[in-house]
Every structure is written in structure tokens, then in C-alpha cells.
Amino acid sequence: MPASSTIDSLATAPSIDIDPFSTEFLDNPYPSYALLREAGPVVWIPKYGIFATARHEQVHEVLSDHVNYISSAGVGLANFNMETPFRPKSLILEADPPDHTRARTILARILSPKTVMHVRESFAKEADDLLERLAHAAARGEVIDGIKQLAEVYPLKVFPDAVGLETEGRENLLLYGDMIFNAFGPRNELLAKAAEKVQPVTSWIMAHCQRSMLRPGGFGDQIYQAADAGEISQEEAPMLVRSFLSAGVDTTVNGLGNALLCLSQNPQSYAQLHQDPTLARAAFEESLRLESAVQTFFRTTEKSVELAGVTIPKNNKVLAFLGAANRDERQWPEPERFNINRRATGHMAFGTGIHGCVGQVIARLEGELILSGIARRFKRIEIANPPSRRLNNTLRALASLPLRLTAA
Ligand code: OVM
């Protein structure tokens, strides 16, 4: 084939005049996701000068190809080849092999299914205690805030306990999460608001990454043990603890919060879960698909690459809409429907490839324990008052979810 016909066959990405980080978009991104998927497999967003994909096939392709689509230039809008990162780069999230591999190996070992078997009992007891308290409050006729009293409380207890963090000051983890997930987006009003508190929150976080602040034997201390063994340097250890504190709380808070929303909006599904609480894992998985806590991540092209026939030049940002891929009608029948009987695995809520969520075993454990605990205790879970959103550049998050819980 002559070279010119190869070029002729290349598509150009349609230009879409949309701001995926505007208030209107973030408040309800799903109609815009449909528009983006329909426009083509790859689109151009002139507002930010980026390529983007909202279809499952291409999101999967981008995330699976860490050679062409790198993470070391940042996984947010900012291109670290052109501008200084707002904080020292994560040794795992914002790294490529072989650096990434060293960090990943350690975190994957600490968060392995075997470790998780060990924490299961204590995570189960905490879920039980919390739900027991909420059941008492509900029995007194109180409306329960599914976010403030449940989705924020549980991950803020069990995960920092496992890491080995003191109890005092843990609210900083939520503020920090809000900040870093906003920081993957543009420097808009949301980031400015979150960044107001950046200084005290960051110093609290960094202080608590030190070994002296971490209970011996916990996940945090285990990172220092890997440093003792020479797998990483002593200077790298606190940076990996920082990854636990960055990625381990706000993600699961919203994973749980979104699952509670899905179940309270779908009484028939909830009735089924109540009948058979072993469906908790399937219900959690389906809510991850339908309402993914992390909605977007970026990559940067390492060289000129072709994606669905579109040439993306070197050093360009590519936005992967995880939350849109998870509703792609090319991938899922009735994608907008919450259906706990479907096979939701293959969703992109945890990403995929070498950067796929290293904590997903813990996240699923938290989801299973909370949803099965609710299913056993309550006959009904209903929305008592309209929920309110907490807009974030990356997270699909609720500020409140007033619930009426009816005892079984
Ligand atoms: C990290 C990090 C921060 C935010 C998210 C994340 C979803 C990782 O610091 O390594 O993964």
C-alpha cells in the first residue's frame, strides 16, 4: 500500500466543545458521556487541548498499553514534562516500569489476598458494630446520613487502623483525598477551594508517613520493613505510605456511598439482596460499574500512537473516561440499568493493566461487608430526603444521602 493511502485512511478526532470539569458536567456527567461515546472512539477537547475516549474498547486499550501511554508525566491534566507537579510524584501512580515495578511489588504484597484474609475478621467486626449503632438510631426513627454516618465512617476506621495510623486527626485523610483527586483536573474553582487547606493537611499527612507514627506490623510499617530489606530506600518508604493515605480512603468512601445510592434507588434489587445477602459482592461490583468512584484518569503519549485510526502525536494528554466506558452500550446490555444479576466484571472502575487498583481486594472486602451487613439487618433502605453532591474533578461523590432504614 502506498504511504499516502495509509495517511488517507486515518481518521481525525471530532472536536467536542465541552468542559468535563465544569459544574454542570460533573453534576450529571452521563448525558455528556453518551454524547462523547457517540461522537467517535476518540475525540478532541479543544478547551484543554487533549484527546479523550469514552468508549470501553479504547479506554481498555489505553490503560492496557503502558508503553505508549505513560503515567510518569502525570495521570491528571497537568503534563509533568511541561510543568512541575503540585506535589512530589507518587512512586507508583505517577511512574513507569521499571521504577513502578519496584513500588508495585511491595504494595501488591502488602495488599495481597492473603493479607486481606488476616484483616477480614477485624473489618467484619467494625462493620457489624457500626451497623448495629445505626440500626439503633434507625429504630428510634432517626434518618441516617448514608455518607456522613456510614460511607465516611467505615473506611476512615478500618483502613487507617490496618495501616497503623493513630485515631486523632483522621478527618485530614478526607480533606487530602478531596484535594489530590481535584488536582488531577484543571486549576478551576473546585481545586482552588480544596487547595485552601493544603498546607496544614499536607503537613499532617507527611508527618504521619513517618515510621515513628505507624504501629509496628501495620501496612505502613511493612513498607519500612521492605526498606530495611533493601527493596526501596529509606527515603522512598514514607512516599509509599503517602500512596496508602492518598488512595485508600476517599475512593472507598465514595465506592460505598455510591453503592448505597444505587441500592436505595433500586428497591427491587435491594429486595433481592435482602433475600440473599451473598449477592453483596455482585451488588458492589455493579455499583462500581454504574457509579464509579473514580471517573477519569489521564495518560500521556510516549510517542506518536494510533488509537482507533486516529493519530495522537507524542507528548499529548489522553483522557480516559472510566465512568463512560462503564456505561458503553457496545459493552453492556442496558448499560444505564442497575442490575446486580449481570456480570459487571470487566468494568474500568479500578482501571486495568499494570496500574490497575492495587487495593481492590480491600475495597471489595469493605463493600461486601457493609452491603451484606445492611442486607441482613434491614428490610428496606429508602431515600428520606434528596441527596446532595460533593463535586470533585475526578471523584463521583456525595455530600449527603439521607436514608430511612427499616429493620428486618
Ligand atoms: C498515590 C495515589 C494517589 C491517588 C490515587 C491513586 C487511585 C494513587 O499517591 O499513589 O490511585
Question: What is the compact description of this entry?
Answer:
The protein has a single domain, classed as Cytochrome P450 (Cytochrome p450).
Would you spell out the secondary-structure blueprint of this structure?
Layout: H1 3-9, H2 23-27, H3 30-39, E1 43-45, E2 50-53, H4 56-64, E3 69-70, H5 99-110, H6 113-139, E4 144-145, H7 146-151, H8 153-163, H9 171-182, H10 189-195, H11 198-207, H12 219-228, H13 236-247, H14 250-265, H15 267-275, H16 280-290, E5 296-301, E6 305-307, E7 310-312, E8 317-321, H17 322-325, H18 360-377, E9 378-383, E10 388-391, E11 396-400, E12 402-407
Helix pairs in contact: 6-8, 6-18, 9-10, 9-11, 12-13, 14-16, 14-18, 15-18, 16-18
Bound molecules: 3-methoxybenzoic acid (OVM).
3-methoxybenzoic acid binds at residues 90, 92-93, 180, 242-243, 246-247.
The count of domains is 1
- Can you say what the CATH homologous superfamily is? Cytochrome P450
Largest sheet: 5 strands, mixed
Q: How much is the radius of gyration in Å? A: 21 Å
Overall shape: it is globular
Helix content: 40-55%
The CATH topology is what? Cytochrome p450
Unreliable runs, pLDDT <50, ≥5 residues? 1-8
Mean pLDDT: 96
Q: Look at the structure and give the CATH class.
A: Mainly Alpha
Multimer state: single chain
User: How many helices in DSSP terms?
Assistant: 18
**What is the number of beta strands?**
12
Q: Can you write the helix and strand succession as a string?
A: HHHEEHEHHEHHHHHHHHHHEEEEHHEEEE
Distance between the termini: 69 Å
CATH architect. name: Orthogonal Bundle
